[in-house]
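Ticket opened by: R.M.
Priority: normal
Category: complex prediction / small molecule

The reporter submitted a protein together with iron/sulfur cluster and asked that the result be attached to this ticket for the collaborator who will pick it up next week. Submitted input follows.
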Amino acid sequence: MRDQFKVRIKRQDRPDSGSYWQSFELEREAGMNMTTCLQRIAARPQTTDQEDTTPVAYEVACLEEVCGSCTMLVNGRVRQACSALVDDLLDDMNDTITLEPMSKFPVIRDLFVDRQKMFDNLKTIKGWIPVDGYHATGPGARQSPKQQEAAYPLSECMTCGCCVEACPQFGPHSDFIGPAAISQVVYFNSNPVGSFNAAERLKAIMGPGGITDCGNAQNCVEVCPKDIPLTNSIAKASRAATMQALRSLFNK
Ligand code: SF4
Ligand code: SF4
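Result attached by the on-call engineer:
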């Protein structure tokens, strides 16, 4: 096992500036993940050319693959820095790990990107259950264990951005809302109370940038760290949208 290794990072000082690469040499530690690496670099920000530099900017919160904020490209694959272990990324042939910001979002600085588009898309599909007050209204409608089992995996979405990073249809070149938001339509529409607003959510994905923009490449489901059955959600949303279109036609 090598005691030292390099981390090569694609950096960018400002949203409107160009990018450049810097390499850092680190001592290997047991159980080290990419967040630890970035912390070690911040403690001593000096490149392999012995140049003093600034700590690398990145977003982080939970440190346990629940918040999704530390999503970046690690050796070219989109994933969370907190669950990317150095031991799994290095081998006898390779002593360098590469970090890049996600490419589908504007870079704020270094590895820190602006995922606002994803949150805006959740607003578009009304990814919540509206309440008309916070007074006690008694227990909600019951869900069978089967319904709960189907809904729970969809509730695990952490808006990390992995699926949209991998999706060829999503990005600055398109208005496509992306697989995460479509899956949240299915999730909230499957809730007994959320189903009251099902038509609104479906209509939100029936226009331009909606479900028909999915090219079915299925990259999204391959990279989701929570194993959310995204293509299954897309198929369900597509069927529900077709039914909604027919209902709208006959209710004119
Ligand atoms: S199936 Fe393909 S086009 Fe559709 S959302 Fe997933 S990655 Fe994007
Ligand atoms: S669906 Fe999966 S990959 Fe996409 S944002 Fe949610 S957790 Fe991340």
